[in-house]
Amino acid sequence: MAHLDLHHFICREDNYGVLAHDHRSGATASIDAPDALAVERALKTKGWQLTHILTTHHHGDHVEGNLALKEAFGCTIIGPRNDGEIPGMDKAVAGGDTFTFAGREVRVMDTPGHTKGHIVYYLPSEHVLFAGDTLFEMGCGRVIEGTLEQMWQSLDQLRKLPTHTIVHVGHEYSEANARFGLSIEPGNRALQQRAGIVAAQRTKGEMTLPTTIGEELKTNVFLRPESPEIRKKLGLENASDAEVFAETRRRKDSFK
Ligand code: ZN
Ligand code: FE
Questions:
Q1: Which ligand is the nearest neighbour of the Cα of 57?
Q2: What domain range includes position 132?
Q3: How many whole angstroms from its chain centre is CA 53?
Q4: Would you state the pLDDT for residue 14?
Q5: Using CA atoms, how far apart are residues 242 and 151, in angstroms rounded to an integer?
Q6: Ligand 2 centre from 17 Cα, in Å?
Q7: Pairing mode of beta strands 5-11, 76-80
Q8: Which of 7, 114, 122, 216 is least crowded, fewest Cβ atoms below 10 Å from its Cβ?
Q9: Ligand 1 mean position to 172 CA, how many Å?
């Protein structure tokens, strides 16, 4: 079976929209629906018809297009069972659930932290993860509804996916995240290099996605609490990984 065709685009200000399309059946999913018009425009560009929306969490910048797209396409909306209100949701899912999209298995993982019921979608046959606002390029979501401990557990789960897993995330925050990462782990060569690459891409207005789990393991300080340099920087040489993560996240919240 040929891989799903993925198409991503930036909408609103810094949200990423992603479409996943299966040529054979014509099935097309939008991962979240930040902006109905932007999603429709992307569909039109590709000549695809929307059949599904896979929602990661209830925030407005992820569900605002739900009802208009459902009205226009009659698509099925799948979303988190334990998060806030998901407009137009047809099917509620939670961690451990699996369902089929275009003949592929989709595994739902609970990743609470950013919101209390945030979920991500992992397609093992495609080696693809749709991470929403849990994991960003060189960053992670702000911990709003859950606890820092929960967010760490969520990210730790994602860390264990195969390194070649292709990752799509909810926002283009790569430049700011690289800057913060270098303030925490300035000696990380891979991060220095990537910071240069994304800065050049963003200057040209290019998108920086997708990333991979392997790339994030090397360059994302939120996934690197074992790093001796980070631990030393934070004065947490003997702390747990969860504590190192929590302090890293707190520093990001006040980083200018
Ligand atoms: Zn969000
Ligand atoms: Fe968001």
A1: 1
A2: 5-253
A3: 15
A4: 97
A5: 9
A6: 11
A7: unpaired
A8: 7
A9: 13
Distance in Å, CA 62 to ligand 2 centroid: 6
The per-residue pLDDT of the chain, averaged, comes to 98
Q: For position 220, which CATH number holds?
A: 3.60.15.10
Residues, CB within 5 angstroms of ligand 1 (ion): 59, 133
Closest CA to 224 of 104, 117, 138, 110: 138
Say how many Å lie between the CA of residue 133 and the centre of ligand 1.
Answer: 5
Sheet holding 104-110, edge to edge: 98-101, 104-110, 119-123, 128-130, 166-168, 211-212
C-alpha span between 210 and 190 (Å, rounded): 17
Q: Which residues pair with 171 in a beta bridge?
A: 15
E strand intervals along 104-185 = 104-110, 119-123, 128-130, 135-136, 139-140, 166-168
- Of all ligands present, the nearest one to the C-alpha of 58 is 1
CA of 141 to the centre of ligand 2 (A): 8
| CA of residue 146 to ligand 2 center, whole Å | 15
Question: With 90 as the cut, is the pLDDT of residue 24 above it?
Answer: yes
Distance 172 CA to ligand 2 centre (A): 10
* pLDDT, tens only, 137-151: 999 999 999 999 999
Q: 24: CA distance to ligand 1 center in Å?
A: 33
- Taking the CA atoms of the chain, what radius of gyration do you get in angstroms? 18
Structural domains of the chain, count: 1
Report which bound ligand comes closest to the CA of 59.
1
Per-residue CA distances from 169 to 70, 141, 187 (Å): 23, 10, 26
Q: Give CA–CA dist 197/193, Å, rounded.
A: 6
Measured in angstroms, how far is the CA atom of residue 93 from the centroid of ligand 1? 18
